[in-house]
Amino acid sequence: MKEKEIKIYYYKSKGPGGQRKNKKLTSVKVVHIPTGITAKGTEFRSQVKNKQIALMRLNEKLNKLQERKKQRIKTEKPLYAKIKQIEEKREISEKKKLRQKIREF
Question: Which terminus, N or C, of the chain has the lesser number of Cβ atoms within 10 Å?
Answer without folding.
Answer: C
